[in-house]
Amino acid sequence: MLKAKNLKKYYNSTNQIKAVDDITFSVNKGEFVAIVGKSGSGKTTLLNLLGALDTPTEGEVIISEESIFSLGENERTVFRRKNIGFVFQSFNLLQALSVYENIILPVKLDGKDVDTELLDEIIDKLELREKLNEYPTSLSGGQQQRVAIARAILQKPKLVFADEPTGNLDTATSEEVIELFKLMKERFGQTVIIITHNEAIAKTADRIITIEDGRLK
What pLDDT score does 35 carry? Predict the structure, then answer.
């Protein structure tokens, strides 16, 4: 499903920073992978490169046989929308849209019909039904995180990238979220890659990848 080949992201300064330093690995279709490492180890930079949100200094990322950095910028945008769901630490919700509108936005942008049965299941699982007509500014951090998760899952993407998806959630909700990711993985064959500091969550993954100083450990 995904291959990273000799992936590098260097920042030029007085002392060159090697945020991602020659990383090569692959992830199989339907695999649930946790990326762990200390703050500043390069986890988020790696995730941004894998999801084509950032461009590498060198190297290649292949998703479903498509070398994503050989695509033009507009083509990459379309590819991401059709194939990848993102859950960001900063939520990236549109403040002018309601919770419901934020959740269905990527599906609508792709010209698809909303799977209402799946939507109902997701919003009940994430306890969002009473918040659907509210706006992000009225939500807590944990509630906004759940909206971001719902938005990513509803797309039924081939790949889900999640940066600390349970960072703002209590233990019970965190467990529900991980179970939801696993359910979607089983139902739609999705591949899930998450960054987490939570050791218990990392241990629920099929595989743990550890990164240290920009390199795989």
Answer: 94
